[in-house]
Design brief:
- The structure is a single chain.
- With 354 residues, the chain is of the alpha/beta class.
- The protein has 2 domains: 3-24 and 218-320, Conserved Hypothetical Protein Ylqf, Chain: A, domain 2 (Orthogonal Bundle), CATH 1.10.1580; 32-207, 3-Layer(aba) Sandwich (Rossmann fold), CATH 3.40.50.
- It has helices at residues 3-14, 32-44, 68-73, 93-103, 121-135, 160-172, 219-227, 233-236, 238-251, 256-261, 270-280, 299-311, 322-343; strands spanning 50-56, 78-83, 107-113, 148-153, 195-198, 203-207, 284-289, 292-297.
- It has a 6-stranded mixed β-sheet with strand order 3-2-1-4-6-5, sandwiched between helices. The chain has a two-stranded antiparallel ribbon with strand order 7-8.
- It is globular, with a radius of gyration of 23 Å.
- The protein starts with a helix and ends in an 11-residue tail after the last helix.
- It holds the Pfam family MMR_HSR1.
Length: 354
């Protein structure tokens, strides 16, 4: 029996089946600067021809601020960019696109991108797709304007500014960063000035602060957002985020973390996992109690490393919405089976002979 088979059996028979949110409370993830940024976006939207929403590809079905339609974009052409595609599997992308369009018809097109890859075909397709959407839309009072103005929106830390810099640098061959970037949520706190990214046709982009949903009602959705670094680690708690990620990885039979951390097998307890990982990686600290100094595992530092490595894809590529995707596929199979029974057809849709 291979170790993966043994680990799956261990997880399925002995580990947590559900995540216990006892002790957690619903939180307001909508800081003051988001209210200010949203109002500024609403004032600018009349001078915008198209909206590009950037979102984290690891949570394609959850975590999106679906209130943008009512609060910002309205009837403007809407292009959805699922960024950080290098962190997710290549499977199920057609299904994801189909389900997003069914649930949110205002989305005109969907593109998967890796904003850190200068050769990414998805990134290169963004401007041509956006310009095409604009040229086939009613621009109302902006019909006579020679330029195209596009607003970049999305929740915090999904790569909006990185995408803007990539488009600008590749089209205009200009180095540097026109939009500030960082690996923490909330780098862009205010609406930026228009950034020219293309001369023919003349295209400007507006970078905006990340705007989360006013209320995250589902604790699972909130923890997924935290795991993907779109919420402040210090607000949610690094140890709590590690615990949720560990539970999800085990439940999904994603055991890449075991070998990467130097563990012997999967662990269900996050504190025990972090302790063993800290020892395996030599992350120790000295603590003095009652005048006696001892060396102990540095759990806090290990938690920070665990989050960094997970978010960098070092444990493997995963969708945090895999459960939802599996449910959709199962439902589609049931619908297909029912159709075959009712219409006496085979898997290819041909009528069976009597």
């Amino acid at each position: 029996m291979s170790k993966i088979v043994e680990w799956k059996k261990l997880v399925d028979t002995s580990f947590r089946k559900k995540y216990d949110f006892t002790g957690y409370s619903a939180k307001n993830w909508f800081p003051g600067h988001m209210h200010k940024g949203l109002k500024a976006m609403q004032r600018k939207i009349t001078n915008v021809d198209c909206v590009i929403e950037v979102h984290d590809a690891r949570i394609p079905l959850s975590g999106r601020n679906t209130t943008f339609k009512e609060t910002v974009s309205g009837v403007k052409p809407h292009l959805l960019v699922l960024n950080k595609e290098d962190l997710v599997p290549k499977a199920d992308r057609k299904l994801i696109i189909k389900k997003i369009k069914e649930a949110d018809p205002i989305v005109s097109d969907i593109v998967f991108t890796n904003g850190n890859d200068f050769g990414c075909k998805g990134v290169k397709s963004i401007l041509p797709k956006a310009v095409k959407l604009i040229e086939h839309s009613d621009r109302f009072h902006r019909a006579g304007n020679p330029d195209h103005t596009i607003m970049i929106i999305g929740i915090p830390n999904v790569g909006k500014s990185t995408i803007i810099n990539q488009l600008r640098n590749s089209r205009l061959k200009i180095g540097g960063k026109a939009a500030p970037t960082g690996d923490k949520p909330g780098i862009t706190k205010a609406l930026q000035e228009k950034i020219r990214v293309c001369n023919k046709p003349l295209v400007y982009l507006l970078d905006t602060p990340g705007i989360s949903k006013p209320n995250v009602r589902s604790m699972h959705a909130g923890m997924k957002l935290a795991a993907c670094n779109t919420l402040n680690d210090l607000v949610v708690g690094e140890l709590s985020i590690c615990d949720y990620i560990l539970w999800y990885l085990n439940k999904s039979h994603e055991f890449g973390y075991v070998d990467y951390l130097g563990l012997k097998q999967p662990e269900d307890d996050h504190l025990l996992m972090l302790t063993k990982a800290a020892i395996a990686n030599g992350l120790m600290t000295k603590r003095t109690t009652f005048g006696k100094t001892s060396t102990i595992p540095n759990i806090d530092l290990m938690a920070q490393r665990f989050l960094k490595w997970f978010r960098s894809g070092d444990f493997g590529r995963i969708y945090f919405d895999q459960d939802e995707l599996d449910d959709i596929k199962l439902n589609d199979e049931h619908l297909k089976l029912n159709y075959q029974i009712q219409h006496n057809t085979d898997n290819d849709g041909r009528i069976k002979s009597l």
